[in-house]
Amino acid sequence: xxxxxxxxxxxxxxxxxxxxxxxxxxxxxxxxxxxxxxxxxxxxxxxxxxxxxxxxxxxxxxxxxxxxxxxxxxxxxxxxxxxxxxxxxxxxxxxxxxxxxxxxxxxxxxxxxxxxxxxxxxxxxxxxxxxxxxxxxxxxxxxxxxxxxxxxxxxxxxxxxxxxxxxxxxxxxxxxxxxxxxxxxxxxxxxxxxxxxxxxxxxxxxxxxxxxxxxxxxxxxxxxxxxxxxxxxxxxxxxxxxxx
Length: 244
Description:
The protein is an alpha/beta fold. The chain has two domains: about 10-110 and about 215-235, 3-Layer(aba) Sandwich (Rossmann fold); about 110-215, Rossmann fold (3-Layer(aba) Sandwich), CATH 3.40.50. It is about 40% helix and about 20% strand. It has helices at about 25-30, 50-55, 60-65, 80-90, 90-100, 110-120, 135-145, 160-165, 170-180, 200-210, 215-225, 240; strands at about 10-20, 35-45, 75-80, 105, 125-130, 150-160, 185-190, 210-215. Strand 5, helix 7 (about 135-145) and strand 6 form a beta-alpha-beta unit. Helix 9 (about 170-180) runs parallel beside helix 10 (about 200-210). The chain is globular, with a radius of gyration of 17 Å. The termini are far apart.
């Protein structure tokens, strides 16, 4: 039978998700506007989180990006690992993604956090991490190199990805509120794409009176910003709602 073809002009976003991540994809599906095409690929990752296992992903990111549909040219592709970016490097992640896919812009949670912090006018963060010290310190160093101070810090000190995905929202709220009350911090950042942060951001903001940022939230926001997609969405923090 005869048929016609037509161009697909919807904004097209790609997300490279860690094999061990159980959270980020669901968060993206909940927030992304319905007129956006979101494609997801996975990158091999270890169940243990150390600088060494994070660095190993450098060998696979390009291949993971190459698994997106080849006829598609993407507006933005995001690499979904905050700590992995701190180890591999912002520019290197971008190069690896571009080696595998046709894309206009690449981002990851660190670049997204820097952009979100600039948008909100904050430079001092209360930093909450789930990870062991040598993973967290690498990320804090990268932020410092880019003008973001983390004078207040807290961590759950785990090196197991499966544990991270199961830290209770109540525990996250308690820890974030504790460090967020410090007058040394202008906002709170909860690091890691595998933490279940999306539904507690507004609760923490209400209790502390400061903006709250998380890895998934800032990555969603930044990808939409780069693609020219509006992100006005209530209930997930000031950043996504557009309120400052």
